[in-house]
Structure formats: C-alpha cells, structure tokens
User: Fold this.
Amino acid sequence: MPTPKRPLSPRGLKTYPLRSRSSRVRVADFAKVVRPADSVGRFVERLPGFLAARDLKELTAAMARARRGRKALIWAMGAHVIKVGLAPVLIDLMERGWVSAIALNGAGIIHDFELAYAGATSEDVGSGIRTGRFGMARETGEMLNETIRRGAEEGLGLGAAVGRMIDESDFPYKKWSLLGAAHRLGLSVTVHVALGTDIIHMHPKASGEALGAASLRDFFLFAAQVRELDGGGVFLNIGSAVILPEVFLKAVSLVRNRGLRLDGFTTAVFDFLHHYRPDQNVVRRPLGKKGKGYYFVGPHEIMIPLLAAALGA
Assistant:
C-alpha cells in the first residue's frame, strides 16, 4: 500500500497587497448607462472596454485613422450582405469616404443587378431546384453575360463592366446598386468568380473566356489595392467564408513577392459564424509585424449598421 500523502499546508504562503497587482479588469473600463435620447454612436462609446466591445472601438479608431490618412479602406463582401438589405447603409458609407474599394464574389453582381433591375432578388431555391427553374431568370443571364463579354473585349474588369452598365441604365431601382454607386463615385469594384458557382454560368450566353479574363483582370487590380493597405489601411471581410479570404491571401503574397512593403494594416472579419479560412487568411496569416486582426460574430443586418453608426460622420 502506498504511503498516504499529507495535505500541503498553506502556512507561510506569500501574499501581496491587492492594489499592487496588475489587473485585467478595471472599473474605468465598465459600460456606461445608455439613455433613451442617446444616439447609436453614443451607445457604442458607452460599451465596456472588454473583448468584442473593445475590439469594435479599436477597429473604428483604425478606420478613422485610415480615412484621415487617405489609406485604403477595402470592403470585401459576400452576396448575403447585399441580400439582407444593407445597400443604403453601404452606399452612404461610400459617399462619406469610408470605402476606397469593394471586392465581391460572383453572386454579388447577380443580387446587385436584380435589385437594380427589378427591385427584388433571392429566389426560392428549394422549390426551383425541383423543377429546374432555379437560376433561369432570363434578364439576369442575358444582360450580365452580355455585359461581361463586352467588358472583356474592351479590357475592363468584371466589376467595372457591370458597374458601368448599371450606372448608365434606366433601371428603376439603380440607386440601390453598389456597383452602380461605385461607378458613379469613381470607386473600384472587383469581382472574383469561381466558375460554376453562379446561376449565370448555366446560361447559353456565358463565356468562360470572358468571365476568366475579366475576373483575372480584377484580381490583379485587387492586388494593387491591397498594396495600398501598407502603413495604416483597413481590410474588412464581411460574409465570405472561402472565396474572398483565399483571394486576399494570394494578393498579399503577390504584393510581398514583388518586394513591396505591406505591413502595419488592420483586418477584420464580420460573419454570423466563426469560419476557418477568414480566421486564418484574414485575421492571422497576412499580418506583418505591426498589423492587427479582429473577428466579430453576429448577423450582418445588425452588425454592419452598428459599425456604420460607430463610424459616425
């Protein structure tokens, strides 16, 4: 039988005064009470200085510094961001100088076009897929593919071609188009397509040559924009779990491979789930010695208006 151990006595334990200790939580960082008359911006100011609330304050401060210093403010967005009705908020941010460039996946131009053209988007996939009607809207397939083909012939990127088409159209709802607004404001939109993922790729007018040429041109334009993050820019990935984080990582590698400095920038992810690639390819891997990344989890339809309100004027 092993010899029983005697309990370790606390006698002689060394202690120190509580007030001499460095503590991670202080009352100075507590939340402030929000009053009914307070603005949303005031609400953000009164959030506690801990965890995600602290991160949001740090991110908005970084974005404010970037705008003052005329550094890049790149918004990469999945199509769901458009589908939840955020165009008015995003266009307002574009008009007020909080956006220098936008990057979208292929679905982004589809929902943006349909909203501008018809004032509605997002079909019922469940019912449409059973009958073969899913993705077969005539105008979406014909007009977007024709625009992409014509743009490729003119040496335009995909985003520039679609943005020009919408801005110059007589579509009744074009004021809600991100691409149309970007063209009007002289802001760049790049579109990064994975062939076979978008409904317009099924259309007989789809041209792999045009899609590939226009989207590849956009990739190299995007890389030039990523270069401008150096020294204080901000890159946001909102609602893209795979495509745009992968595109961003390759653009960062391209810039650094060319021997160009890329450090001291901020990245942030906004999504309603925590995903592997945004975490690794946006928040962690691309950062240099001086950069910082943030990850915010929550519904886009709440988080992005909250971010916009926190940015203020």
